[in-house]
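[audit] Reproducing an earlier prediction to check determinism. Same input, same settings, fresh worker. If the tokens differ from the archived copy the diff job will pick it up downstream; this log only records the rerun itself.
[audit] input (933 residues):
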Amino acid sequence: MKFLLSTFLMLSVLILAAQPNLSLSDKLPEDPAVSKGVLDNGMTYYVRANDEPENRAELMLVVKAGSVDEDDDQQGLAHFCEHMSFNGTKNFPKHELINYFESIGMEFGPEINAYTSFDQTVYMLKVPLDEAEYMEKGLQVLYDWACQNTDSDEEINAERGVILEEERMGRGANDRMMKEWLPVFLKDSKYANRLPIGKVDVLENFEPSVLRRYRNDWYRPDLQALIVVGDFDQQEMVAKVKEKFSSIPTPSNERTKEYFDIPGHPETLVSINTDEEAQYPIAYVYYKHDLEKSKTIADYRKQIVENLYMGMINNRLSEKTQQADPPFLLGQSAYSHQFGPLSTYMSVAVTQGDKISTGLKEVLLENERVKKFGFTETELERQKTAVLNNMEKAYNERNNTKSISYANEYQRNFLLTEEPFPGMENEYTYYKEFVPGITVDEVNQLAKEWVTKENRVVIITAPENEKTIVPTEDEVLALLDDVENTEVEPYIDAVANVPLLADEPYGSKVSAEKSLDKVDAVEWKLENGATVVVKTTDFKDDEILLNAWSLGGSSLYPNSDVLSVGFTTDVMSQSGIADFDEITLNKMLSDKVFSLSPYIGELREGFNGSSSVKDVETMLQMLYMYFTEPRFDDVSFQSLMKQYATILENKSTSPEANFRDTLNVVLSNYNEREKPMSVDRLSEISFDRIKQVGKERFKNASDFKFFFVGNIDLEIFKPLVEKYIGGIPTLDKQEEWVNLGIEKPDGVINKVVHKGQEDKSIQYIVFHGDLDYNAQNKVQLDALGRILTTRLLEVIREDKGSVYSIGASPSTSKFPEAEYTLAISYGTSPDKLDELKTAIFEIIQEYANNGPSQEELDKAKEKMLRERELALRENRFWMNILSSTYYIKNGDFSQFGTYNDLVENLSVKSTKKAFKDYFDFDNVISVALAPAE
């Protein structure tokens, strides 16, 4: 191993000999835009000014301690400590912390959150900056989390129920199997017995002092980092951080922090696990390696080499899924950090029930092929171009990087991986300097380093049934030996050196142009009848989004065709285009940064896509070809059918799948078109019908509306639109969707699905009805959902300790009939289903009788206005505005810009009326999952 590594470094030095400005031995620099330091008490800080998004700051407290640091009597208490930080600190007693932040428009979950892992606990806030007080409060919360948590006996005991419900919701086949294989994977390591959720008996019975002992040991400044990134003056913020957080005391007689090993093993370890509720087999092979930290430029260069390797081997594995009878549904290989001091090279195959050994062998044989023959020069050149183009796009977007991206990067730098942050300018330079000189030989060398007999672990998880053929441990070991002794052939890289378009489209000109002043966009009518709407933005420097649609969708087809229609765009996407199959097409377009996907919904069909600025023409070419030369490949169709058969084969054993199917059919009032999907129903799908439907849905430009949002130069873009969209054929036909009459059932519906062995339940309660569809009512429903969600969290989660998460989600639709739904969902103990439903109905009735308080309404309104403020700087928001307004209002933007006024119009009186109108207890659907009887 040492010889191989030294050879690699010698090659690298020789390659860089002609690049005197970069020395491999140099330490990687830290981005000068970041102020990083260590306070006298040992706390690390990272501060960076960044105005994306404007008027916001990302705050994090990172604690370099997690579940692996727990004593035996503390299993689960690292995570419990995280919860308790929201339940009382010196300056925010009990639940005042959440109440305060919600009052200034912050949302619990997206903007106030935390997580616990094996090695770390991380707290996150996204704070508005309208008032200086908001940042001061945010910093105070982080200060309190760092050293002033209350952890009262009363609050600890009250939180037990919430934690236990979180544990309950994690139960299932995957969890049961993981608890079997994880101790094998982490043999002789403390990590094997420290799942962050902990042990139920500990969670139920620990004394509060045991939790406080954990916090006292590990919540201390030398194990903590403060991260502040946002739209502020950087030097002023550094001064605030130093002044405030330097006062955190350094503990005396601090406990020694241990960093636990994950020992190696010369033998191959095997763990085979089956479960009656598992959905499909997955076979993993892990090759364990010590964590390597990137400290020098040479280390960074090696990471580039590793990324090239992973891209190429996964391209090869992806090709195998294109076969008519693929050896696996999904195959991947990757080298990455797992946790603690462990990195792994992992090869994984998701397989059919009778092909576990076949799928595993095929994935591993690709490793052997690389070890023996390596990658080809053409593969490497193609991958080099792809990574350079992606890095160029990231570089172009460097001034639009979200603050959360920077904060996450600094978090990783502080933790065990010590990931460097040289800055995008340096990283782009490294890629441009290093990538051209990377050779096939040095990439191929990685397979010999990564794929070893030592420290190897094989894990198989699979359904437990007669159809699934699960290999024994001896058979697995024999398979590994067989792989090494199998004669493999070199990979042949077939490349098509022809243009994507054989003939240039004739095109048609813009015949009419209209300015859409309300949304600062332009509408073009082309001579072929197509409508194109374009909005230029500066939110992203290298992003252009596409959405296109026409009316019709699956509603135009009889019940006998519904499955064929549903699979049409899957087959189209996997078949390639024109004369090029998917494998050839991917190679041809590997140097392009774009995506394009067709879809067929119930009422519309269309496309979603995105591209870099320089590759927008390629996206338009593909769009044109979907209309003029769609490809329907029988091999791709057969491959998809095999894949779906595997996915569906054991679906009936899954409690959650049964529950979802029942919910969907009940909500459709058992409409024939909403029958659950099964293996038997795959026989209803006709390849010939798919070809017909695909051609019918995408053939008429005059029936389509095309929307583009992003960094668009109209003078350059207009001729491209005229050429490609203007070149799409036109038919003298305008289609409309058909109202299929699929409606939710009236009356009170109660349904319980009894399935599964775990003592857990899922509940959906759906209120629904006709809607006077207008902007004010939509805003009112949104506020109603937020108010109810907050109260449900307070009462059902916090007061009763009966759920981990719960929420009320409103939705509206105008077509085919204007209606609303309000869905309340949560997981809980089966014996609490009736109790909680009663409690929820009582809360709703209270609002219907008395309305919310002014404070509750103000919180909801503030959240809505804050979200809108951020959304206005997002391309996807504008795409939705443009596309939906043409769909719902036929392009009438006269009411746009009134959103804030609509929110301000909301009152306690109007919200009280909304609770009464929209929650009709005589028209409600309840579907629950409960254990098998």
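[audit] rerun output stored. Observation attached for the diff report: The first helix runs from residue 2 to 15.
[audit] end
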